[in-house]
């Protein structure tokens, strides 16, 4: 019964992360943080599911590897955007500008 409450809690937290991801359009850093929060909630759901079904947690290592790669790509985009434009506002740069 406790695992069911944990699943519901993780799903609700994932939905809150989705809402923040959709609603934050001003800064790239807030968008990346909400994306990482969603990934962590998915990892927790996956980990709880694998433990509940008595499977090995080997797949979670692959998931964490891809999550780290996603985080590194997001931070590199953030650093390159700050170096070229001076801030992380989405409104400060144009698509037509290279």
CATH topology: Helix Hairpins
The poorly predicted ranges are none
Distance between the termini: 55 Å
In angstroms, what is the radius of gyration?
A: 17 Å
Tell me the helix content: over 70%
What can you tell me about this protein's structure?
By secondary structure, this protein is mainly alpha-helical. It is elongated and about 50 Å long. The longest helix has 28 residues. The model has no long low-confidence stretch (mean pLDDT 84). 77% of the residues lie in helices and 0% in strands. It contains 3 helices and no strands. The protein has one domain: Helix Hairpins (Orthogonal Bundle), CATH 1.10.287.
List keywords for this structure.
single chain; 98 residues; mainly alpha; Helix Hairpins; 3 helices
Summarize the structure.
This protein has 98 residues and is mainly α. 77% of the residues lie in helices and 0% in strands.
What's the arrangement of secondary structure elements?
Elements: H1 2-23, H2 28-52, H3 58-85
